[in-house]
Amino acid sequence: MAAQPAVVPATRHLSARIRALPAAWLRDNCPCPECRDPRTGQKLFQITDLPRGLAVEEVVEPGPDSPCVEVGWAPDGHRSRFTVGWLDAHRPADSPLTGDRRTETGKELWSAADLAGRLPEAAWDDYLAAPARRARVLDALQRLGFALLRGVPVREGQVLAVAETFGHVRQTNYGRLFDVRVEPDPNNLAFTSARITPHTDNPYRDPVPTVQLLHCLENSASGGDSGLVDGFQAAALLRAEDPEAFAVLTGTPVPFVFRDDRTELRADRPLIEVDARGRIREVRFNNRSFGTVRLPAAELDAFYAAYRAFGELLLRPGLQLDFRLAPGDCLVFDNTRLLHARTAFAQDGSRHLQGAYADLDGPASCLAVLRRADSPAPLAELFDGAGAAEYLGEEVTMAAHMLQAGALAEAAGAPPHLVAAALLHDVGHFGEHATGAEAGADANADVTEYGDTRHSHTGADFLARWFGPEVTEPVRLHVAAKRYLCTVEPGYREGLSAASEHTLRLQGGPMTDAQAAAFARRPYAADAVAVRRWDEQAKEPGAATPEFGHFLPLLTSLLDG
Q1: Can you say whether the dihedral through the CA atoms of 271, 101, 468, 449 is positive or negative?
Q2: Which residues contact 215 (CB under 8 A, 6 or more apart)?
Q3: 367, 436, 444, 480: which has the highest count of C-beta atoms within 10 A?
Q4: Cα(173)–Cα(191) distance, rounded to whole angstroms?
């Protein structure tokens, strides 16, 4: 790294940048009060109201009295004013988050071993009292598909109060609240003591409830342990191992049916649903509610072979996370992604859960509001405090290393989310006390398939109180990116510093070819590799870098992205 990193000011070449933007897109986003209601932020015009042949006629760059760039339009003379922060945060780019955020993109797909020692859990009282803790729980629900609240008061109906902390209860034919216990005349196998294999709930409903909550009131029976399977991970494995079966299951709607004395429900949906870009968006799998498939005879054999392949994969050892709910535990999970299961239980004790349904837009909204209300300014205190410590045997402090990485990303013209990830990639090294993390003190205590899970995962989880996956996931994956590059790029390992070589060995060494191929398929893998390269370069003693405050407007602009 050069002694004076070239930080490109956000305003440089603004006129050329703006003239290169799609004119219709830029004008459609005009924030002026003629175009948007100042109270609601909603648009006051239709796309058909805009003149044809829109073109940027004039660009007035920001000056001492205005932080905005002003754009004059032809042919109608309209004038728009945009902040530089908004332009940087929203500039058109090929992003993993393009389109539907409910897809596999931005999720952390997992098998049971990936979550060893780091279940996404929180104490109920902390969840209620600390907005940052609530944000981490809701982020885990979006990213991992579930979260576990401990110490929720053991009283009937409390599950409704949990749901109402982030959204609204979704009422079904089972009511606002339902009891999961042995019933004398059950209308569903869930209300017996039988083993229940991995499944999603209510696949026969349109739309399906997207969030499920299960609150344990009593669990003294022998058996009755719970299990979760990441259906997106299983579907991704099927796509990699048997693409023909994946294509059959994503292209074949099947009937899911439920009937009792008062209800008859049916929905025809594929077992695996993808969006217009082919990304996994939803899994529906419930053998108990699977109706009679009506296809041409020539297609049935292929369908049943694919159905069986997916069913076997869902039962593959190592995919299912097993645990036992104790009284006061409340499991909250994404019913369009995770499959849940339980073992059979004896009637030598009592097992009583209460459940409710909600919808994913509730926690997503709650998380966005929490992030919007929480300025990232406290990060500056970490850079000034814990950041002054030595950086793991290198000749720079942790803060200097991270500021150098952020400056390198900015100088390279990286998009704002990637500059933020480079700047904050090692925040997990600031320690448990500084970040409020629950991980152990040893930064290399846990090693999984992708390597050291402490500082990368701890840092990403901490940053989730402010930022979405476009920032947190490159941070989470930057350790794995080093192991990946050591496998796929000849000569990369020879360029590592002695300290980085030492941590590489602690982190599991280079990936196998299969691990490298799996890593490359992950959303944000390319961004993590970019962060990794800046990480390796950002170790120059005495290099001049901007202060943390230089990056604060960029970080703030990402809160509503």
Answers
A1: positive
A2: 152, 158, 159, 162, 329, 330, 331, 353, 354, 355
A3: 480
A4: 15
The dihedral through the CA atoms of 500, 502, 506, 511 has a sign that is: positive
| Among candidate residues 409, 408, 398, the one with its CA nearest the CA of residue 434 | 398
List the Cα angle 553/554/560 in 5-degree steps: 95
**Quick check: 334 and 213 in contact, CB under 8 A?**
no
Is the separation of the CB atoms in 154 and 207 below 8 Å? no
Please compute Rg for the chain using Cα positions: 26
Q: How far apart are CA 30 and CA 244, in angstroms?
A: 46
For the segment 454-507, what is each residue's pLDDT rounded down to a tens digit? 789 889 999 999 998 999 999 999 999 999 999 999 899 998 888 888 888 888
Helix (H) or strand (E) holding 480: helix 469-488
In order, the DSSP letters of 143-195 are HTSEEEEES---STTHHHHHHTTTS--B-BTTBSSEEES--SS-SSGGGSSS-
Answer yes or no: are the C-beta atoms of 462 and 437 closer than 8 Å: yes
228 phi and psi, to 5 degrees?
Answer: -130, 140
Residue type, 318: G
Note the pTM of the prediction, 2 decimals: 0.84
Structure tokens at 373: 């209300």
